[in-house]
Design brief:
alpha/beta, Rossmann fold, two-stranded parallel sheet, 44% helix
C-alpha cells in the first residue's frame, strides 16, 4: 500500500506520518513547503510538491500511484477543495480517501457546514471513503498557555458548558488504523475524549498540574469575537464564537466510544495531555 498524507506541517499530519513510518511504510507527503517536510522527516518519506487549492488535473498528477489518501482541508472553501481532491483521487485511482472531519457535521455548529459540504462532495465522487468525525483537539488548549502562565486566568465565552476534547495521538492512531485497512469503507466514526469537561474544570486541572490556582473568567460573545479577531480572520472568528456558544448551551457535550471501537483501548484523558504539555503553562525558572 502507498499512503499519501496531507497536512504534514500541521497538528495531525505529522503524527500520522510518523506512525506509518514506524509501521515500516514510506509514506508520500504532499506539501507546498517541501523544505519543511524534509526537515521533519528526512529521507523517510517521499515528498511531493502540491497545493490542495490547485487545479484538479495538477492534483491528480500529485496523487498518482497512491492507494490511500489522508485528507485535511480547512477554511470556508473547504467543500470546493474536498471536491477537487476527491475527483483528482478518483482520476488517479486512489482506492480509499480518509477525511479528517468534525462531529459538528451533524449539529451544524462552527465548521460543521464546511465539512458537510466536503463530505457530500467526496460521496458524490464515488471514491471509497471514511470520514473521521472528531471532537476538538486537546492541543487547542495551548492557546491558553500565555494567559495561564502570565496571569493565572483562562477567559472564555463557554460558560459552564462542557466538551470532550480528544488527544491528537488518539486521532492519529485512529487515522492510521483506518488507512491500513482495519476499518470498513464508507463509514463515519465519531471520536471524542473520554469525558466532557467545562473550561473551568480544565483550567482547574491545569492549575493543579502547575501548582497554582487558575481563575476562570466568563466572557460575552462580543468580547470573545473581539479577542478572536486579534489573530483570526472574520470567517474563522465567527465559527469559533459559534462553537463556544454551542458549548455554553450544552450542545457539544457528546462523548463517544469511537476510539475504543477502532483501537480496542480507551481514549487518553485530558490529564494525560496536560502531563505531556505542562511546561507550556508553567513559568520558566528566573522569569519574573
Amino acid at each position: 500500500m502507498k499512503y499519501l498524507i496531507t497536512g504534514v506541517t500541521g497538528n495531525i499530519g505529522p503524527l500520522v506520518t510518523e506512525r506509518l513510518i514506524g509501521a515500516g511504510a514510506t509514506p508520500c507527503v504532499v506539501t507546498r513547503m517541501p523544505e519543511k517536510a524534509r526537515k521533519l522527516f528526512g529521507d523517510r518519506v517521499e515528498v511531493r510538491l502540491g497545493n490542495l487549492a490547485g487545479p484538479r488535473t495538477d492534483l491528480a498528477e500529485v496523487f498518482q500511484g497512491c492507494d490511500a489518501l489522508f485528507l485535511i482541508n480547512t477554511g470556508p472553501d473547504l467543500g470546493e477543495r474536498d471536491r477537487a481532491c476527491a475527483l483528482a483521487a478518483r482520476d488517479a485511482g486512489v482506492q480509499h480517501l480518509v477525511k479528517l472531519s468534525t462531529l459538528d457535521v451533524k449539529t451544524g455548529v462552527g465548521t460543521g457546514p464546511w465539512h458537510a459540504r466536503g463530505e457530500a462532495a467526496i460521496r458524490d465522487s464515488g471514491v471509497p471513503y471514511t470520514f473521521i468525525r472528531s471532537s476538538a483537539f486537546m492541543s487547542n488548549a495551548l492557546s491558553w498557555a500565555d494567559s495561564i502562565r502570565d496571569d493565572g486566568v483562562l477567559s472564555s465565552s463557554t460558560g459552564e458548558g462542557k466538551i470532550a476534547f480528544i488527544h491528537p495521538d488518539d486521532i492519529a492512531e485512529v487515522v492510521v488504523s483506518v488507512l491500513t485497512g482495519r476499518q470498513t469503507r464508507n463509514e463515519s466514526p465519531i471520536i471524542t475524549g473520554p469525558e466532557a469537561l467545562s473550561y473551568r474544570q480544565m483550567a482547574t486541572a491545569i492549575g493543579e498540574a502547575i501548582g497554582k490556582s487558575v481563575r476562570y473568567e466568563t466572557l460575552s460573545d462580543a468580547d470573545a469575537m473581539a479577542g478572536a479577531l486579534m489573530w483570526a480572520d472574520r470567517a474563522y472568528a465567527e465559527v469559533l464564537v459559534d462553537i463556544w456558544r454551542a458549548v455554553r448551551e450544552g450542545r457539544l457535550a457528546t462523548v463517544s466510544d469511537g476510539v475504543q471501537q477502532v483501537l480496542q483501548r480507551p481514549p487518553k484523558s485530558l490529564g494525560d495531555w496536560i502531563d505531556e504539555n505542562v511546561r507550556y503553562f508553567a513559568k520558566k525558572a528566573g522569569r519574573s
